[in-house]
Specification:
By secondary structure, the chain is mostly helical. It has nine helices and four strands. Helices cover 49% and strands 11% of the residues. It is elongated and about 60 Å long. The relative contact order is 0.11.
């Protein structure tokens, strides 16, 4: 993520103005503003200090790479290198899928807190979605929970199954 966007997003999420966050982080408002506008780049230490002052932490996450796997009938589906994780606020949100995913029922809002509705979204995204759609709507832990109950074409299930099984396999010493 772009450092300027990250700092600005965190500041807004913490309901702080630039003066408040700068004071908490031990920096000046002009310096913080300069980071947010991209005129200057904070060091990792400085970025971590600013985020901590807003109640967040700087963390590294593995990059997810996608490969196109055959799904039958000449189609492919994007399968990630490892299962993505969503923030709970995203994983359990109400979502309206874009038209390229939910063309048969446009405008429908799915309540992701409802297991059945979440399952329907996962079926649609795994079957019709792009890599960006997988990252936006699929949480790996919730996918594992839903996996036995999802109604998927054989090719889509075969493409995803090794990833799901690997994630649920017992760890070896």
């Amino acid at each position: 993520m772009d450092p300027r966007r990250m700092i600005a997003d965190v500041r807004r999420a913490a309901a702080l103005n630039q003066d408040e966050l700068a004071t908490r982080a031990g920096t000046s408002r002009p310096t913080l503003s300069s980071y947010e506008r991209g005129h200057r780049s904070p060091s990792l230490t400085t970025a971590a200090r600013i985020l901590a002052a807003a109640g967040y932490e700087l963390a590294a996450a593995p990059t997810i790479a996608f490969t196109e796997q055959p799904a039958g009938h000449g189609r492919t589906v994007p399968v990630p290198s490892h299962l993505p994780r969503l923030d709970p606020s995203e994983a359990f949100a109400s979502v309206m899928l874009p038209l390229h995913l939910n063309w048969s029922d446009p405008g429908r809002v799915f309540d992701m807190r409802d297991r059945r509705q979440r399952g329907r979204v996962y079926e649609i995204v795994l079957r019709e979605g792009t890599a960006d759609d997988v990252l936006a709507y699929i949480d790996g832990a919730l996918l594992i929970d839903l996996w036995p109950d999802l109604v998927l074409p054989e090719g889509v299930r075969a493409a995803w199954e090794p990833l799901v099984l690997a994630a649920t396999a017992p760890a070896t010493a």
